[in-house]
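Revision sheet: structure tokens.
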Amino acid sequence: MHPSSAPLREPPAWLLEEPYDEVSLGTLKSGKEAEVFLLERRYADGSTVLLAHKRYRPRRPSPGELRELGFNKATLYRHDSTYRAGWFLSSRDRRAVAHKTDHGHEVIERLWPIQEMEMLERAWASGASVPYPVERTEDGVVMEFIGDADSAAPRLAQAQLSATELASAWEQLIENLRRLTAAGVVHADLSAYNALWWQDRLVIIDLPQAVEFTTNTDAPDLLHRDLANVAAWFERRGIAVDVEDVYGDLLGLAW
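Predicted:
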């Protein structure tokens, strides 16, 4: 993987460079490979901010290890070879991953958080609407929490949008895809379940499997799949979409 791009946008004002304590407030979401925990960061000046800490489970946990680490579910990893195609690995690591050795599993486990942090930073730098990447931890990524003290932002698929809001969400989605594609980034798993809707803002989430055009030969096909997936969801709700026209426009930005 390439080194992370330097952010072109200023960090959000709520991220203070002051001493702080953090308290875990419980689990926000449990997925196949990772769980998202809600953190409250308490600064020395008395202010607080809510953050989301996405932590990846061990690929081969020992008995009782997941519970000791605070995870609620067992680990179920996707067939991820397509997404790993552009990763820059040493020949030893690549062989280990290909042969699924213990070392290969350790390599993948170590690199998923690195990959997600890099792609979040690149997406943020592009101007796309994504959670701000705060920092990388040993097993995951701390990022902006989308929501407030009362509730987390709903996924787009679960938000009850009016016709006007649906039209706005589609326009925002296309603008975000334009920014990501121009930056050479393809989400590669985009759907109405990997986007949030909060205060009239569409936010794209879950980028660990994101790929880039310069290193992954499947990137154009993955971009088309992303677009077709979200377009089908919007079309079922009355938004007219010309997938091939939009796809052609995006490809032009990529190249």
